[in-house]
Specification:
Chain lengths: 107, 121
């Protein structure tokens, strides 16, 4: 299963909404996770089951989608949200493929 | 505190071997599956290997036959034995805990800080 994220880079101003996309090459139901990675840090789990926030993740992060199309939305960007975001499927594993990432940068 | 701590990275020559370790604390190690994920500098995440609670193992095609994942529950430790290393294996290697979220599937909820592997002559 190939995971394709778009766009590769997204420029958004603080306080605005960011929408990141992830597409699977075949249906993965809702077996999708989103991770955030900041420079020099390990990835952090944000969303699992396509739409459920992990423990401690702020409500401004939301996930949606099923099948092959998925979206991560950050409703009002804070300075700490600028990072790289990865989607990952866990359907028909292994391998547990990741998307190539979307870099969210300050506009 | 729930955490994973990797060690064992370093510089190795092409064709050489290295053994990575990942030590867990703050939770019952034996109840979880674990994974190794690597990241080439400036690139994305690549899943490498996994091990289940009963010792079942899985590998990506790029490392199968060269890497061996293992675990020692009595020591709360996960290992990755890497043989026949190539330049393209150079990366930061992360260990990660897999958590099962009932009917919502699973995801990697705890990650170590990573250990750097450099393959160069």
């Amino acid at each position: 299963i190939v995971m394709t994220q778009s766009p590769a880079t997204l420029s958004v101003s603080p306080g605005e909404r960011a929408t990141l996309s992830c597409r699977a090459s075949q249906s993965i139901s809702s077996k999708l996770a989103w991770y955030q990675q900041k420079p020099g840090q390990a990835p952090r789990l944000l969303i699992y089951g396509a739409s459920t926030r992990a423990t401690g993740i702020p409500a401004r992060f939301s996930g949606s989608g099923s099948g092959t199309e998925f979206t991560l939305t950050i409703s009002s960007l804070q300075s700490e949200d600028f990072a790289v975001y990865y989607c990952q499927h866990y359907s028909d594993w292994p391998p547990y493929d990741f998307g190539q990432g979307t870099k969210l940068e300050i506009k | 505190e729930v955490q994973l701590v990797e060690s064992g990275g370093g510089l190795v020559q092409p064709g050489g071997s290295l053994r990575l370790s990942c030590t867990a604390s703050g939770f019952t190690f034996s109840r979880y599956d674990f994974h190794w994920v690597r990241q080439v500098t400036g690139k994305g995440l690549e899943w490498v290997s996994a091990i289940g609670t009963v010792g079942d193992t899985y590998y990506s095609g790029s490392v199968k036959g060269r890497f061996t994942i293992s675990r020692e529950d009595a020591k709360n430790s996960l290992y990755l034995q890497m043989n026949s290393l190539r330049a393209e294996d150079a990366a930061v290697y992360y260990c990660a805990r897999e958590r099962i979220f009932a009917t919502l599937g699973e995801a990697f909820d705890i990650w170590g800080q990573g250990t750097m592997v450099t393959v160069s002559s």
